[in-house]
Amino acid sequence: MAEINWKGVDLNLLVAFQALLRARSVSAAANELHISQSAMSHSLSRLRTLLNDPLFHRSGHKMEPTERALNLGNDVEQVLSVIKNNILSPENFDAETFNGTCRLGLTDYAEFVFAPLIFDALTEQAPNVKVSFINVNRHNFVDIIEKERLDLVIGSFPELGEGFESQKLYQESHVCLFDPDATGLRAPVSLEDFCRIPHALVSPDGQWVTATDNKLAKQNHQRNVQVISRNFLTIGQLIKGRNLICIVPQLMSLIPYISDGLTRAKPAIEVGDFTISMVWKSGLASNDKQQWLQSRVATAVQNNQLKENKQ
User: Fold this and answer.
1) Structural domains of the chain in order of their starting residue, each with its CATH number
2) CA-CA to 127 of 20 to 30 Å: which in 28, 118, 166, 216?
3) Would you say the C-alpha torsion 284, 289, 294, 297 has a positive or negative sign?
4) Which of 283, 296, 287, 285 lies closest to 91 in space, CA to CA?
5) How much is the mean pLDDT over the chain?
6) Rounded distance, CA 29 to CA 97, Å?
7) Rounded to an integer, what distance in angstroms lies between the CA atom of residue 181 and that of residue 5?
8) Of 226, 257, 266, 259, residue with least CA distance to 244
9) pTM
10) Is the CB of residue 191 less than 8 Å from the CB of residue 269?
């Protein structure tokens, strides 16, 4: 095996490669690293020479990675993670004296239900911590983890690709909420009334038809979705005093701001549960701060879930 010319290996080249692979743009990668576009172009040229591969080729307005670049992505991620967390890591993390920032991505639902609990759990042990809650959804969380350099995200997400790890926090079920005076309904709600009363629907992606509608159709039934909102915060005030019924997560229905004056009932048709998970980038598990953060978040969410189940 030929001897490596270590003098030609610059750690900054790996950082530049990672930024280019993430941004797929020389100018965007340069902005991310706060260097000039010409400096980034020079780094790309050195990378091509060092690795004997073009690494990226232009396709429209983007720089598409070669197969070699894609294969190197995870290796470079791991190398930089080891250097950052194991070699250049600061002294052991101490929650009591920590005054840095924890950056957490949460879906609308997760933020509304859990943000206060998480803040209390973190500040209980780290009174000087700064906490930044950043909105994410199942479609954009991967990009926002990179862009905002999030420590972790919380919510209901599809299958994760390579480069991420997750921990299940709890399984959430659904209930129906309605104003008994405005609708004339009482619990339990029959399938006939479930289809007769107009529905309000929380639809993060703006779709009017859900798995519930497909199940109803298989039973030769149909509901009338009259209004949709992309935000759970709207629903409580929307259905109060109106002839509307809405399916919401159970924990959401237990929050007084949402449920005051409303009746909670089991849906007249089976509505699938969903999993709330905590997701983070691979390679962070050995970081003391990350371990502490994940432990505090999991404890806050799961303890709350146990408490609610006793009601």
Assistant:
1) 9-87 (1.10.10.10), 101-159+280-309 (3.40.190.10), 174-272 (3.40.190.10)
2) 166
3) negative
4) 287
5) 87
6) 34
7) 79
8) 226
9) 0.65
10) yes
Return left, alpha or beta for 55; rule: phi > 0 is left, psi -120 to 50 is alpha, else beta.
left
Please report where in the chains the tokens 């206060």 appear, as a residue: 116
SS3 212: helix
Token pair belonging to 121: 């759990």
- Both tokens of 261, joined, read 């004056």
Q: What are 15's two structure tokens?
A: 């950082």
pLDDT-derived band of residue 310, with 50, 70 and 90 as boundaries? very low
CA distance 202 to 229: 5
In this predicted model, what pLDDT tens digit does every residue of 194-223 receive, in sequence order? Answer: 999 999 998 877 889 999 999 999 999 999
Query: What would the two tokens of residue 231 be?
Result: 């935000």
Q: Which residue has the tokens 């237990």?
A: 254
Three-state secondary structure call for residue 59? strand
Tokens read off for 118? 């998480």
